[in-house]
């Protein structure tokens, strides 16, 4: 069973500190949502409010159209999976998975059968009689997931469950977690500060900052078409280039920058078409730069830049560039692994107008 979740104008204050500031969010039944942001952004506070461990200072929480704002955690159709897993060391795996069922009064034969079914779901049925200390970190994570799902929650809340794993195992578990969520169909709400993890598992990402939602959308939309400077910068490396809108018509806007003029279509302006003389910021990902002179259609030439540093990353060279027209500016660009790039070399830069996102100028942390 699964359910939709609705957060309506939720705020949470601790004395003079506002941890959550008028947040509204609708989550579809069966959706995998990731709350993403830096430490202190409010994501864990929001998860705790959904689980009933905190009450909102104001606002309303509903799950499956039922008001859950002041309902205790034990009476909510939710289960929370924490980073430390909290498995019982003296219990066998099947007893750990069946513990919640035992607390609900299910007979031993029935709960053992159900526990074995969920251990099978996570690939651990064959070691059901082992104890947690006999398992690897990844296996313990799977047991914790099986235990959380065994009680048939409408919504599973995951508080950075992969944070204690090493990089290789974390990536493996991301794939497994997503596959299991698709199989069981339960609504998942997952908290992380890891951008790569969010993009690997989420149906939609909710980017949070200073207690507010900055951006929300599918991973590709958040990365390629961000709607705030904070979201653009947090979701990966990006070059921020200041500009001014000098001319507009129904089909385009001409923006003057230190790298030269660019004519952009309305689709480049993700928060609305600008007005004349408006200060804007162009957002260009390092991988979107091209060398001038290629025959790719739609490229805008940005002039020459000097290579001030470069490092080989396997899939590409990560280059620091200083534009000759704006030597005070530093640009990061990815060049193909086959490129021959050396410090001091001058390269011509270009970018596809379709890859440029333009946002109103403001502080990145606003």
Automatic annotation (TrEMBL):
The keyword S-adenosyl-L-methionine does not apply. GO terms for molecular function: ATP binding; ATP hydrolysis activity; transmembrane transporter activity. Keywords: ATP-binding, Nucleotide-binding, Transport. One of its GO terms (biological process) is putrescine transport. This is Spermidine/putrescine ABC transporter ATP-binding protein. Belongs to the ABC transporter superfamily. It comes from the Bacteria. It holds the Pfam family ABC_tran. The keyword ATP-binding applies. One of its GO terms (cellular component) is ATP-binding cassette (ABC) transporter complex. Residues 5-235 form the ABC transporter domain.
């Amino acid at each position: 069973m699964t359910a939709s979740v609705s957060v309506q104008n939720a705020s949470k204050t601790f004395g003079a500190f506002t941890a959550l500031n008028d947040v509204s969010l609708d989550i579809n039944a069966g959706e995998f949502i990731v709350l993403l942001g830096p430490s202190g952004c409010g994501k864990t506070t929001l998860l705790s409010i959904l689980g009933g461990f905190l009450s909102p200072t104001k606002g309303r929480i509903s799950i499956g159209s039922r008001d859950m704002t002041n309902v205790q955690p034990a009476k909510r159709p939710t289960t929370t999976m924490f980073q430390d897993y909290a498995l019982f060391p003296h219990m066998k795996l099947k007893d750990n998975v069946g513990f919640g069922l035992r607390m609900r009064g299910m007979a031993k034969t029935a709960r053992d059968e159900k526990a074995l079914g969920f251990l099978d779901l996570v690939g651990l049925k064959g070691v059901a009689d082992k104890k947690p200390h006999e398992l690897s970190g990844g296996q313990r994570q799977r047991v914790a997931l099986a235990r959380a799902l065994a009680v048939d929650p409408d919504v599973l809340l995951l508080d950075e469950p992969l944070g204690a794993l090493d990089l290789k195992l974390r990536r493996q578990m991301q794939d497994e977690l997503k596959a299991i969520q698709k199989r069981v169909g339960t609504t998942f709400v997952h908290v992380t500060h890891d951008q790569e993890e969010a993009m690997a598992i989420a149906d939609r990402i909710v980017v949070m900052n200073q207690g507010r939602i900055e951006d929300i959308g599918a991973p590709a939309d958040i990365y390629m078409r961000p709607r705030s400077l904070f979201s653009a910068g947090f979701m990966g490396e990006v070059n921020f280039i200041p500009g001014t809108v000098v001319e507009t018509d129904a089909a385009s806007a001409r923006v003057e920058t230190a790298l030269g003029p660019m004519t952009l279509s309305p689709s480049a302006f993700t928060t609305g078409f600008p007005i004349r003389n408006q200060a804007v910021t162009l957002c260009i990902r390092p991988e979107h730069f091209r060398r001038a002179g290629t025959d790719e259609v739609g490229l805008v030439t940005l002039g020459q830049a000097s290579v001030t540093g470069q490092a080989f990353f396997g899939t590409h060279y990560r280059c620091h560039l200083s534009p000759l027209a704006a030597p005070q500016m530093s640009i990061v660009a990815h060049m193909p692994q086959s490129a021959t790039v050396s410090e001091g070399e001058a390269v011509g830069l270009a970018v596809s107008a379709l890859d440029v996102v333009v946002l109103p100028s403001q502080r990145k942390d606003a």
